[in-house]
Amino acid sequence: MQNRAIKISLFINYFVFAILLNSVGIVILKSQKVYGVDEVAASTLELFKDMPIAIVSFLIASFLPRIGYKKAMLAALGIVAFACVGMYFGNSFWSAKLLFAAVGVSFALIKVSVYSVIGLVTDGEKAHNSFMSNVEGVFMFGIALAYFLFPAFNSPDDPNAWLNVYWLLAGLAVVSFLFLYNAEFDEGTEIPGANLTEDFMAMFKLLTRVLVIVFVFSAFLFVMIEQGIMTWLPTFNDRVLDLPENLAIMMASILAVSLGIGRFMAGYLTQRFSWVAVLSLCLLGAMAMVVFVLPRAVSAEIGDVQSLADIPLIGYAFPFVGLFIAPIYPLLNSVVLSALPKKLHSPMSGLIIIFSALGGTLGSRLIGILFKEVGAESAFSYTLIPMAVLFVMLFVLKRLTDQERAIN
């Protein structure tokens, strides 16, 4: 297997889906302004994105090695190319729902494949931690690009101009398809069971392990935090900081960039320090940002803003919470995957994606409800609760992974 070519392919695929998948926060804002839906209704876009991810991951993850990772990723890229064209011509809230449903189905195929292939192209826990963090870092920079792509196509004089971005996104999917199609991809992986029934049961058997139960709960909590903040940050910038729509969207890119930088830094730090030490400091830093920085941003007098240069420094501060929360998700995933035999990576990846999707849906939904009920100024402060619980879970997970490695 030519590891270098495969790694490049994984980076490209993840980059394309980062733009598509995490444009949901932007489309939520556009849906409120263009299609006239309220906050709670708009938050259902997260449901249409995440539930297909959970369902498809549940159905196919355990026996995806039999189908082939390359075939699965090619199918995913083809689906989203057609879905982007459908969004352009549909131009409605229902079209947005269908788009994110297609993106969700496709991302399930992509993510299970990527997480499983990482185990084939790396050796050892530290190498796995580092490459997983780098892949997720590329994902976050794809998200950052989305926050500039959509405003570039937006026009205050034409409410439909923003839809032209979907032609570009369809083109990117096609380019990624062609690159992957021509890449050598000798998978040669182990199969979880002797037949499809045993493949499917492998996922359920994993849920009997205490390590896996603790991990999926931890992943659920983290994605609830990250997705809740990321999805609603454009709306926060629009309502609380009173920024123009394009600037509200572009400012949200700071979170994505800080997440990307944080994940690349995690790839470096975990080669030198214990993952539990890195994540403990990260969670303490994130909680400090919510307690001390967020209130100052909410109470700041922003004034008249016409460009990014007009925004005071405190307006930029809170999105840098991404530096602290960034390493958590890839390191948690890497820790549990590297502790398990490689033949269980595909079904374990399915569980990761299922509970991540559920956490993302619940997180976005809860923040949407909080935006409506307690106000945009206070909604993000409630993320302190899952952060505190997750901090405790890190030490439980550390003990369980050490026990798992001792057994294997």
Task: Walk me through this protein's architecture.
With 408 residues, the protein is mostly helical. It has one domain: Up-down Bundle (Growth Hormone, Chain: A). It contains 18 helices and no strands. Helix 11 packs antiparallel against helix 12. The longest helix has 30 residues, at 210-239. The two termini are 25 Å apart. The relative contact order is 0.16. The mean pLDDT is 81.
In brief, what are we looking at here?
This protein is an all-alpha fold and 408 residues long.
Number of helices: 18
Major sheet attributes: none
Question: CATH superfamily, called what?
Answer: MFS general substrate transporter like domains
The tally of domains stands at 1
CATH topology term: Growth Hormone, Chain: A
Extract low-pLDDT stretches: none
> What value does the Rg take, in angstroms?
20 Å
- Strand tally is 0
Based on secondary structure, the structural category is: mainly alpha
- Average pLDDT reading: 81
Mind telling me the CATH class? Mainly Alpha
Task: Give the CA-CA distance, first to last residue.
Answer: 25 Å
| Helix share, percent | over 70%
Fraction in beta strands: under 5%
Overall geometry comes to globular
What CATH architecture label applies? Up-down Bundle
The SSE order reads HHHHHHHHHHHHHHHHHH
Strand and helix layout:
Layout: H1 3-21, H2 24-34, H3 39-42, H4 44-60, H5 64-67, H6 69-90, H7 93-121, H8 125-153, H9 165-182, H10 196-206, H11 210-239, H12 245-269, H13 275-299, H14 313-317, H15 322-325, H16 328-339, H17 345-373, H18 384-407
Helix pairs in contact: 1-7, 1-8, 1-9, 2-11, 4-7, 4-17, 6-7, 6-9, 7-17, 8-12, 8-16, 10-17, 11-12, 11-16, 11-17, 11-18, 13-18
